[in-house]
Design brief:
It is a single chain. The protein is of the alpha/beta class. The radius of gyration is 21 Å and the shape is globular. It folds into 2 domains: 134 residues, ATPase, nucleotide binding domain (Nucleotidyltransferase, domain 5, 2-Layer Sandwich), CATH 3.30.420.40; 167 residues, Nucleotidyltransferase, domain 5 (2-Layer Sandwich). Helix content is 41%, strand content 18%. Helix 6 packs antiparallel against helix 7.
Length: 347
Amino acid sequence: MLTQSVNVMKSTSYILGIESSCDDTAAAVLRNDEVLSNCIANQKIHQSYGGIVPELASRAHQANIVPVVQQALSIANIDKKELTAIAYTRGPGLLGSLLVGSAFAKSMALGLNIPLIEVNHMQAHLLCHFIKNNDQPPPTFPFLGVTVSGGHTQLVKVESPFEMKEIGRTRDDAIGEAFDKCGKIMGLNYPAGPEIDRLAQDGNPNAFSFPIPKVDDLDVSYSGLKTAFINLINNNSRKNHNFIEENLKDLCASIQKTLVTVILEKITKAQEKYKLKRVVVGGGVAANSEIRKVLHLKAQEENWEVFLPPFQYTTDNAAMIGIVGYQKLLNHRLGDMNQSVSAKLPL
């Protein structure tokens, strides 16, 4: 086993975070818990396909990772030799994409003789709240973690940064995936979630009704709801070719309200079951205005303590990888060169 024996006990640590789990190549530099740079290279090529093409994603990561890391170091105004450790996403995610980030992180850590720290992508979405933020202190433990993104929908009981237990998850589509698929049938560009949110602002959320899936325990399901929406579109479009155009804003508002209602019901049920008044949200869909609105309302009505990430930390980013790297560094939870990436890495 290839391991590294280096001194990591420094009052000031500089962590390079690398994120490459899906289609965004990201690098960030943190000084302890403070973000000095957070750079992301998006992959526009997938828009014409209406979704992520894994092979194209991994090729784009290979082209983007060196300039993105260089940009992160430049903006942070530090030399690579000043780095204390390198944190990278080990999983879950697309295997080819993960391999690019992993290989680069391992090579750089070996060349600089500094610790390599593997990070779980889902853990990072929740721990992004521990990045230094003058507007809000980090949450205290324990809390109910809610991850809502294009690839994942999870409810997690969080006892500490390294003690997380999944208590609920989607049985099929993730909430972000449902947003995108519903947007695609309406002719919206990928990713459709932000566009649905924008159009919904001027729509009637009660114009169309959809069934709320009945799923036991704390799991959720979005596949049936997505199918019901698609059937509504198809049935009405056969009668009126302009149905989508004439009802676009109402359709967006109605499906957005229902998608959010599904997860909100489970959050409420989990809160009651585990007596956790502290709700911490992470993931790309955490930027959705409806989710933010209903959770703020719950905070007022039910005395919940709700933590929503700053918008720059909702989508996949390397700052969240870096903060987990810093937490692991403090607790001497270092990785090694023989750790392989995992597309389905569990919490």
